């Protein structure tokens, strides 16, 4: 059932050390290390680039997602099985994710079935990204019930 919730802001739950380690990985990757995302609806390349961290968070795969400076991920909803994404900003001067209405630069659960967009600034934009098939309400409940915010070895 589609939700009216566009997003849910989360506390900054990663330690500064973990956040720095993830950002260092992203900033030191070569262009060819990133995989270009292709739209699950059109099959066309998007401005999103991802990198598999080969780590999990409570059984879910963790990725870095990067948008190059001045790139635009125009208004859209996601296709495929992903209904919610946990997005954790890593870079400084992080361009906000926009919704109808509103925007945020905070860590969040994003309802990928609600229209959203990113109009990047002149900086590389990198975040930690974890996909969920669950609806956003179930993800919020899950997050409130967990007691550790660490990555599992995979």
What is the end-to-end distance? 32 Å
Question: Residue-averaged pLDDT, rounded?
Answer: 93
Low-confidence stretches: none
Give the strand content: 35-45%
Number of separate helices? 2
Indicate the overall shape: globular
Fraction of helical residues? 10-25%
Radius of gyration: 15 Å
Largest sheet: 8 strands, antiparallel
- Give me the count of strands: 12
| Order of secondary-structure elements | EHEEEEEEEEEEHE
Secondary structural class? mainly beta
Write the layout of secondary structure elements.
Layout: E1 7-9, H1 16-28, E2 35-38, E3 45-57, E4 60-67, E5 72-76, E6 84-89, E7 97-99, E8 103-104, E9 108-111, E10 116-119, E11 125-132, H2 136-145, E12 152-153
Antiparallel strand pairs: 1-9, 2-3, 3-4, 3-12, 4-11, 5-10, 6-9, 6-11, 7-8, 7-10
Quick summary:
The protein has helices at residues 16-28, 136-145; strands at residues 7-9, 35-38, 45-57, 60-67, 72-76, 84-89, 97-99, 103-104, 108-111, 116-119, 125-132, 152-153. With 154 residues, the chain is mainly beta.
Describe the structure.
This protein has 154 residues and is mainly β. The protein is 15% helix and 40% strand. The strands form two sheets. Strands 1, 2, 3, 4, 6, 9, 11 and 12 form an eight-stranded antiparallel beta sheet that branches. A four-stranded antiparallel beta sheet has the order 5-10-7-8, with no helix packed on it. Strand 2 (35-38) and strand 3 (45-57) form a beta hairpin. The mean pLDDT is 93.
């Amino acid at each position: 059932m589609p939700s009216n919730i566009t997003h849910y802001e989360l506390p900054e739950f990663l330690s500064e050390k973990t956040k720095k380690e993830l950002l260092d990985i992203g900033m030191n990757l070569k262009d060819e290390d990133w995989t270009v995302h292709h739209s699950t609806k059109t099959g066309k390349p998007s401005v999103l680039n991802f990198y598999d961290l080969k780590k999990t968070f409570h059984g879910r795969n963790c990725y870095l997602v990067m948008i190059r400076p001045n790139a635009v991920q125009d208004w859209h909803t996601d296709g495929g099985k992903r209904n919610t994404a946990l997005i954790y900003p890593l870079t400084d001067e992080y361009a906000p994710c926009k919704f109808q209405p509103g925007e945020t630069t905070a860590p969040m659960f994003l309802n990928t079935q609600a229209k959203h967009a990113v109009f990047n600034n002149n900086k590389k934009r990198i975040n930690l990204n974890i996909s969920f098939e669950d609806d956003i309400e179930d993800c919020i409940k899950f997050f409130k019930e967990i007691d550790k915010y660490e990555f599992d070895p995979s």
